[in-house]
Amino acid sequence: MNIDDRAQAALDPADPQVLMAYADGELAAADAARVEAAIAGDPALARIVDDHRALRARLSDAFANVLAEPVPTRLHAALRADARATAPARAPSATSRPRWRRREWLAMAASLLVGVALALAVPQFSHRPRDAGLAAAMIDANLFARGALAGVLDAQLSGHAVAGVQPGVSFRALDGRYCRTFLLQSPRALAGLACRDGAAWRVSTLAAVPRVEAAPMRQAGSALPPAVLADIDARIDGPSLDAQAERKARAQGWR
Amino acid sequence: MSLHEPAATVREALGALLPRLRRFARALTGNTHDADDLVQATLERALARASQWRPEQRLEAWVYAILRNAWIDEQRARGRRGRVFVPESDGSQVAGATIDPAGALALQAALRQLPDEQREAIALVLVEGLSYREAADTLDVPIGTLTSRLARGRGALQAMLGPAGATA
Question: What's the total number of domains in chain B?
């Protein structure tokens, strides 16, 4: 920020915008030193700076993969086109105007991509419910646990990790079904919520676990990403099951 | 084509900027297809107006401004400026499921909830890594306006997403 001498004298290290500018590396050295001194003695201020940096890192990470994607050929073609042959600056002609696609196709394509990416990354899921066609299953984004995940959800009590899968908490949902949270260790740390659907486990939420939380596979409840916690909040009916209630539910096939 | 010709300079710079333009467009539009359509419109406009670029101006900021204005035009053309677009994640949420291995969809959904002016500030500074001054110049607003939009947008995102560096 452009802060002149007079403003510098009045710079308040606890000012939210000053802390934000500090976190973004926008302060001059002298101002930055003042903020550093202030946050060294005040964990609350340090926390604000950390949150700013964490959000920045999260945004940066979320879009970083775009840089690695191959650039579509139509964009290279647009770049090669003779400027004089393309539309005039003020009023692009109908022919040079990009085709904005239909939302239905877009939503479906996105769903397919997500599904395929997930299938490649996580072998413990199936997109195919037993009683529906493959296409419909993908459009509905129905994910069902399979393999180790299904086995662990069926058989293990909360907190018992097997084959890189750890069930977290179990509870009854508002619709009466049993739901269980889980953590997956590989290929990357993922947390999710699955609810009983017949003899299968339907996965309603799956989200990456922030790296810090990923290493130790314990404290399953507290390590859950916000998306999973929100899903639990939306479904849970009453308290989560204790070990005895889990055993009873397991004995009844979670039905 | 001479390298000293503005059009050739702009064309060359646009080629180098393509990946970043696609990223900025993704952050603004929230979906891949609109983003690439927007980049295509931006390339066409920038090439058509290459003679308007002045060498003392940062070409990156000039192109980002063209892209941002093209997006405003597109939204006006759709009559939906400021409204939320069909999110790319809709397809994965049809059955109430949220499938988001990288957390990126949740973040994009939160970004779409922001007012345009806050999303622009966030995209330029936090996604593209522009300085406050560069971002303010790109948006043609005073730096104080930029910082207050950035602060409001950040606060809103943090409220929607929870603490980004949540502790276990």
Answer: 2
